[in-house]
Design goal:
Layout lengths: L4 H10 L9 H18 L31 H4 L6 E2 L2 E2 L7
Antiparallel strand pairs: 1-2
Amino acid sequence: MAIDADTVRKVARLARIATPEDRLEQLAKELNGIMSWIEQLGEVDTDGVEPMTSAVAVALPMRDDVVTDGGDAERVLGNAPKRAGNFYVVPKVLE
């Protein structure tokens, strides 16, 4: 998949990143280099390799699952700008 200046411009607009026109070609070259590295990863034989979440085998510490002070609605909602009963009131978000 080749990335050109128009694709960089579109992605920058979607990500709301201000990108000068004179940098679009250079960014396209850099992104094409990254894409070629990703394609090289597809050539690696990973049959029989177990998935891992870390390079070091570490067991995470566990804690007891207990109820904390979150049950006090008056204290939790004390600084809420708007509330309805025991709930936060937030503005509706539409796109």
